[in-house]
Amino acid sequence: MEIFEIVTYFVLLLLITTAVRVVTTSNVIHAAISLVFTLALTSVLFLLLSTEFVALVLVLVYIGAVIVLFLFGIMITRAPLGKNAELDNDKNKKLGAAIAGSIFFLFSYILVNGFDGEVVITSGSSTELLGEILLSRFVFPFELVSFILLAALIGGITLARKDEALIDEDQV
Amino acid sequence: MIVQPVLVVAAALFSLGIYGILVRRNAVMVLLSIELILNSVNINFIMFDTMLADAMMQGQIFTIFIITIAAAEVGIGLAIVLMLFRNRQTANINEFDLMKW
Questions:
Q1: Between chains, do A42 and B81 touch, taking CB under 8 Å as contact?
Q2: What is the pLDDT of residues A107-164, one digit of tens each?
Q3: Distances (CA, A) of B96 to A74, A100, A108, B75, B91
Q4: What residue ranges do the domains of chain A occupy?
Q5: C-alpha span between A98 and A62 (Å, rounded)
Q6: What is the pLDDT of residues B30-85, one digit of tens each?
C-alpha cells in the first residue's frame, strides 16, 4: 500500500471520528469546533482528489464564515456553555439511531455493490478550466446564486432586527 | 484510489446528520447536523466528478453552488432561531409547538 492510500484512509477515519463527536457531544462549543475539524478534513480529502479550488472555497466559506455565524448563534441564544445534559432528547435516541443506522446500511450496501472495483485516477490542477467553465457555460446559475445570497442577506437582516414600531410602543 | 471507502464515509456522515436532526433538542445543533448532511453530499459530488472525469466539471460546479446555498441557508436559519429565541426565551425545538394541534 502506498503512502497516498494510507493518508486517505487516515483522513477518512478522522472524518468519521469528528463527525460522531459533532452529534454526540453534550457541549455546544465542542460540537461547533468538531464541525470545524470535519470540514477541514473534508477539504483535505478534496485536495487528495485534486479539486483544490473547491477545497479552498470550503475552507473560506464554511470555516471562515458559517462556523463564525454558528458561534454567534450559540452565544446569542444563550445556550448553556459547557456540559449540558438537556441538549439531547433522550426519548428519540433509540428511534434516531435505528433510522440513521438503517439509512447507513442501505446506502453503503448500494454504493459498495454498485461501484465495485471502480478506481479514481486523479489528474493535475483543474482550477483554470473550472473558472472558464463557470463563467461561460454556467454563468446564468452563477449570477442567479449571487441574487439568492443578496435575498438571504436582506431576509436575514429583516428577520433578526428588532421591530422599531413595537419598541416605540413598549411592546418588546 | 478506490472509490468505495470514500462513498461509505459519505453515507456515514449523512446518517450521522440524520441522527443529529432527530436527537438534538437545541435548534442551533439541528442546523449543525444539516451542515453535516450537506457536507456528505459535497463529498459524493466531488468523488463522482473525479471518478467520471467529466469535461464540463459539473460535479465541482454543483458543489460550489451547494456551498453558496448552504451559507444562505445558515444565515436565514439562524435569523429564524434568533426570532424564536426572542419571542419564547428558549431555543429548544420541542417547545415550539405553536402550529401543532
A1: no
A2: 999 998 988 877 887 777 788 899 999 999 999 999 999 999 999 999 998 888 876 6
A3: 18, 24, 35, 20, 9
A4: 1-85, 138-172
A5: 30
A6: 999 999 999 999 999 999 998 888 888 899 999 999 999 999 999 999 998 888 88
Q: Confirm or reject CATH 1.10.287.110 for domain B4-90, answering yes or no.
A: no
Q: Which residues contact B20 (CB under 8 A, 6 or more apart)?
A: A22, A23, B29, B30, B32, B33, B36
Q: Which of residues 35-54 of A touch B (CB under 8 A)?
A: 35, 38-39, 42, 45-46, 48-51, 53-54
Is A51 within 8 Å of B85 when comparing Cβ atoms?
no
Q: Grid coordinates representing A134?
A: 463557470
In CATH terms, is domain A1-85 a member of 1.20.120.1200?
yes
Q: Is the ipTM of this complex over 0.85?
A: yes
